[in-house]
Amino acid sequence: MIGLYPTNVSNDPPKESAAHSSTHFRFSDPRQERIYRRLTLVGPGPASFYRDACLLMASGTLLDSTTHVIAHLLREIESALRNVLEPVMDRGDQGSGEKHRTRKKSEPSLRA
Question: 11 vs 4, 5, 6, 8, CA distance in Å?
């Protein structure tokens, strides 16, 4: 099939698997590591997504889809945070009618 596969890709097996390099990744910034640790409180998935996004940004590997993949990982993290925080926000909104109305107006845009 012509045109489906890049011509500059080696047929040699990778020296290190993606899973192996991801688990041994070291954050270059204490802030990134702090965010990662806090995301582990939400769950292992969001924390792994964040670590992988940091790995992709730091690796210097240029993929045509790097930006798209990182954006997708960040959307997954945002979704996990919303799933955890929405019940807390719902309980906090019960006492304030104005906040509740404002949130109801913005919900359609949040779900888009």
Answer: 15, 12, 11, 10
